[in-house]
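Re: folding output
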Amino acid sequence: MKKDKTEIRYDILSNEWIIISPKRGARPNNFQEIKDCPFCDIEDQEEPKHYFYKGKENKEKKWTTIVIPNKFPVFEEDCTIEEIIENNLYVKKISPGFHDLIVTKEHDKFISDLPSDRVEEFFVCIKSLLIEYKKSGIVKQVAIFHNRGEKAGASQPHPHYQALALPIIEREHQNELNNFKKFYSKNNKCLHCEINKIEKGNKKRLIAENDDFIAFCPFAPKMLFQIIISPKRHTSSFDQIGEKEIKSLSKIFKKILLKYDNGFDSLDYNFFLHNSPLDKEYPYFHWYWSFSPRINCFGGLEMGFGLEISPMTPEEQAKILRKM
């Protein structure tokens, strides 16, 4: 195996995959050192894969949103599959995948600062990437996420959003898939559709709602002021979203992020897309977005045993968020 290639190693104790990616160690950190912004001047980047302008892909290379290959990728498309077993126990392998960056043009404007049509463009971009990754036939799980601020793991201040297509399904997502499948097999109903009904009905944890989406604090949150945005229409993958739903999602998405921006002082956060894997159909799954503010400080109980402790009920958190 080449030393600069990403290895996926199986931890037999925890039943999960661990990624070792030497290229990630070479990433510059513009929060630590002031430099020219690599996303304001994209000439130093690899040729963009997609240009988006006025909500559509643009062949003339005009852009307000672009997709560029990550210069320090976790996974790469053009690598050969390899697998090694050590001592009949340890497994490590190299597999192809994708690692792209979605970059919006303005240096100092996040999703919450953009007009609604630009937020829609962002989601059109994500939809097109999912279709592309699915067609490749080389990946399983997709991870689309944003790190805002140093506490959330961002290495550059210019707003950018990451899209990874992985050759594995990691443990936490596999557990979630199993729970969805188990509930569906027993009840012939979607688990998240039932959750949506409960949250819409009792309104204790409800934060925002429109014709197509519902936003709420989860019943058992892992972080303070965690929020979920879930589509009311049952679909398993984000690439199935329609035009009207993109407009609705853009409005509620921005509304939630503005609560974080206006209600807290310099809040760092992550948001993630929970999507069905791309290797086959998962009709029992229901995609959704999750928002995790970096307020909690994790200690030994959280890190060592996975037991999160919250000083406030989600009902109290939702009440605060509704007023923001």
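--- second protein (sequence, then structure) ---
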Amino acid sequence: MATPYIVHDPAGAGVSAVVFDTPHSGVVLPDHFRFACARQDLMFLHDPHVEKLLEDVPSAGVPVLEALIHRTCIDLNRFDDEIDPGMIKGGWPHPPRRTFHVQQNLSLFPAFAGPRSRRIAAIYNESARLTTAEAERRIRDYHRPYFAALGTLLNRAQAAHGFRIHLDMHSFNRPAGSTIDDIILGNMDDTTCAPQLTSTVRDFFKAAGYSVGSNGVYFSGGSIIQTTGCPAQGGHSLQIEIARNLYMDQESLAFDPVKGQRVRDDLTRLAKTLDRYAATAGLSPKT
């Protein structure tokens, strides 16, 4: 069994109200993961190098939960029943959750990978088909432990402060000439965190020179912030999507250390800003 995650905890620091996680940056392909496409095709269906952008966040006193398992093996930003039964050899014996992501072939077990610039590659075929036992194994060994680890960090933050600020980190491919913003904030249409937290993060990025958008069909948030975001109980979760051409080459997938350093420094400053902001934010549950 591959290790599903690693927690980067600040050394010798008090408990911050802020927690980061990166569920799609993992690159580990477990030995039991059988796939039909080229290995390189799989690499285009994850959030490359987001973990590098967060490397200095623990030095700001803020923990980071980093997924290690590759998204094509199991998507940790999906509910554990967000499954297309037709993908499972012999069918799926449990009630499935048929969501927009399932309709787009981006369920708990994605069906296709490959770069957008050419034909999408099927991850599975008849000789490499996902079985019920294998699907249940991945849920048990990777999905549930990741959510449990995130829950532990969030509960610790809330126990110390009466609330928590959770940033769920992602990236997206932005074609040349696109008018899509640099940063897109997702909060399930203002339901997973207090509006003032979204405004604070938006203002931070704008002051740092980024263009900022919010929500939309593909960026409003997945199962993670839907599960953890409960503002009325003091749980504030915000998804942050970063355009990949700000820090990497989108064709070769190579990290750009010069461009990447700017984003890395800004995310570390964001962690420090929110850690200070938490002291006066008034994000505790209303009684």
